[in-house]
Amino acid sequence: MVAEDDDVIGRLATIRLERGDTLPDIARHFSLGINDISAANPGVDIWVPGAWERILLPLNFILPDTRRKGIVINLATMRIFHFKRNGKLLSVSTYPVGVGTEDRPTPMGEMFVARKKHRPTWYVPASIAADHRKKGDPLPSKVPPGPLNPLGEYALYLSEPSYLIHGTNKPASIGLRATNGCIRLYPEDIERLFEKTPVKTPVLIVNQPYLVGRREGIVYLEAHTPFEESGTANWKKAYAKLKDIESQSGIPLDWKKVKAVVLEARGIPVPVSAARDGFVTATAQPIRVRHPDRLYGQPELPEFKTDAWYVLAASLRDKPDAQRLAAIINHQGPPIPARVLSEGDRHRVLAGPFDNEPAAEEAARRLKIDLELDAVLFET
């Protein structure tokens, strides 16, 4: 629930990493996108972070400067907000999303949910089919429900033709500009959104990289790196809002901090009201959360076994590079299990085990198309 005059929800947190963690695994467990967690933790390796390192979980958000009704999607923050009013109380649910690329951007503006479908069939658009043919990866005219369907298990079809809010079989892409214009959610998040969203729900898509809001009288600023094609209009609007708040409230803002927040663009709401006896600083202190026994959605690596097929993806001298590549392969969609086997100064990245040669060949084909790896098959 959020108070009528509050614009900030959630709380900043920290967690200590454990051996084998990747930032995408941490992000998914806490319903964050890779954009959220990487921007909040500059300098931390996404795929091979240091074990026992403490990182920030940016679990607080400034609500978009829009009406609070139905679904609002902020492309700049790659986050969807679902609003539901109960009298004077406002319930807000929020989830990270993947959005359209620069070449195929997600459209902005007002629309609505035209229909819903559990286990949708994907009818492949001609433009996407052409792209895949160029890569040597021809697609059928339609893909039935199942692990190969990029729509996942649930889809909300928007009134804007050909655009959907849907799940994914590539969860590591959440928080990236990686779609053909649709809005993509983690499988567990789209299931929740699907259940609470009736047909005709209004949907508003905006692009607001700079967000200004208040909570308990304190002014916050949240800055994200804007899309290259966005220009400077968004910052000018946020700057004017900050000036207006300062003028009307009579409470000075810390303009040096404002400048630092914009330059760093870490995607975290930062209090920019002038300090009042340490109260402002105290409100921004993160809470510590315990590392779960298992991260939700973290890939499970099957045991190495004989009498199976494997794919040699690479043989590298640098062990962290090998670990990084294995982690990337592990997070392909659908998953491809991969591990590092070290011998002397060489570190082999092996994908598998696979039960038969055709399954190994399909994995090698995907590694070539998706990661441009010239893999080699072998049987143990």
TrEMBL record:
Domain of life per record: Bacteria
SUPFAM superfamilies per record: L,D-transpeptidase catalytic domain-like, Sporulation related repeat
Location of the SPOR domain: 303-380
GO cellular component, one term: extracellular region
GO biological process, one term: cell wall organization
Pfam families: SPOR, YkuD
Pathway assigned to this chain's UniProt record: Cell wall biogenesis; peptidoglycan biosynthesis
GO molecular function (one): peptidoglycan binding
Active site: 166 (proton donor/acceptor), 182 (nucleophile)
Keyword Transferase tagged: yes
Alphabetized CDD domains for the sequence: LysM, YkuD_like
Keywords: Cell shape, Cell wall biogenesis/degradation, Glycosyltransferase, Hydrolase, Peptidoglycan synthesis, Transferase
Boundaries of every L,D-TPase catalytic domain copy: 69-206
Keyword Transferase: yes
Family: Belongs to the YkuD family.
Identification of the protein by name: Transpeptidase
Organism: Desulfosarcina widdelii
Species classification: Bacteria, Pseudomonadati, Thermodesulfobacteriota, Desulfobacteria, Desulfobacterales
